[in-house]
């Protein structure tokens, strides 16, 4: 539904309404721009490898189990694999991304530990996870994450968290929920759409942002004690 909404809107307006998706696009591009040319980058849970074009100067490797969405084309990924058992050598990647994927794995702690294993020491990870989000890619949709749960999982897996921030607050959540009502009652559009458009303007009022569409974090693989 949200892809259809985005495609039917002017780009500037879709970025305003689809704030979480726009933030993801921007974050991935900024992350890619921060990496040296020629870096080997793992996209753990690549799906249709939609982030490949953000890494024109790096070597992008997309990995997915290809069970999430039956309508997707998984032919563009480099490796069909379970994220719990990545088919790569230890300390082989310069960076990794894990974008709204961790909710789709049954054992997220193992997945993050495996991502850490294949990263070189000090290598960065960009990870984005949902909190207030609809069920999607059912039945492979298992978890939602608070900032505390995500930090715990990252640190337990061997990462140091450099930054962890919410992507919008409760007014962004409410706006998205109102758009979500159109899936079950499209005739409510004249009532819901005006409020859905206005609510994000109040996002700055919510300072704590404990109710958020999701979180964005940058973490780095810790160096071993022998170094």
The overall pLDDT average reads: 93
Strand order, largest beta sheet: 3-2-1-4-5-7-6
What ranges have pLDDT less than 50 throughout 5 or more consecutive residues?
A: none
Distance between the termini: 49 Å
Beta strand count? 7
Amount of beta strand: 15-25%
Helix content: 25-40%
Q: Helices and strands: which structural class?
A: alpha/beta
How many helices in DSSP terms? 7
Query: How would you sum up the global shape?
Result: globular
Largest sheet: 7 strands, mixed
Q: Radius of gyration in whole Å, from Cα?
A: 18 Å
Give helix and strand order, one letter per element, not per position: HHHEEEEHEHEHHE
Give an account of the 3D structure:
32% of the residues lie in helices and 18% in strands. A seven-stranded mixed sheet has the order 3-2-1-4-5-7-6, sandwiched between helices. The protein is built from seven helices and seven strands. It starts with a helix and ends in a 6-residue tail after the last strand. With 227 residues, it is an alpha/beta fold. The chain has helices at 2-8, 11-17, 19-33, 108-118, 147-157, 170-180, 189-198; strands spanning 40-44, 59-64, 79-80, 95-99, 124-130, 159-166, 214-221.
């Amino acid at each position: 539904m949200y892809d259809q909404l985005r495609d039917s809107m002017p780009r500037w307006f879709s970025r305003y309404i689809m704030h979480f998706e726009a933030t993801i696009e921007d974050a991935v591009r900024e992350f890619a721009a921060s990496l040296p040319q020629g870096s080997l980058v793992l996209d753990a849970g690549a799906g249709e490898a939609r982030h490949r074009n953000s890494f024109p100067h790096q070597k992008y490797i997309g990995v997915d189990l290809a069970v999430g969405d039956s309508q997707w084309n998984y032919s563009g990924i480099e490796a069909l694999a379970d994220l719990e058992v990545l088919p790569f050598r230890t300390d082989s990647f310069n960076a990794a991304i894990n974008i709204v994927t961790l909710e789709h794995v049954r054992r997220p702690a193992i997945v993050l530990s495996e991502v850490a294993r294949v990263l070189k020491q000090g290598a960065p990870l960009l990870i984005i996870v949902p909190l207030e989000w609809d069920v999607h890619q059912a039945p492979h949709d298992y978890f939602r994450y608070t900032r505390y749960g995500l930090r715990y999982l990252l640190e337990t897996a061997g990462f140091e968290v450099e930054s962890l921030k919410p992507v919008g607050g409760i007014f962004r959540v409410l706006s998205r929920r109102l758009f979500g009502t159109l899936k079950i009652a499209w005739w409510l559009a004249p009532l819901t759409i005006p409020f859905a458009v206005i609510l994000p303007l109040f996002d700055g009022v919510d300072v704590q942002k404990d109710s958020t569409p999701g979180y964005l974090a940058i973490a780095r693989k810790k160096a071993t004690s022998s170094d």
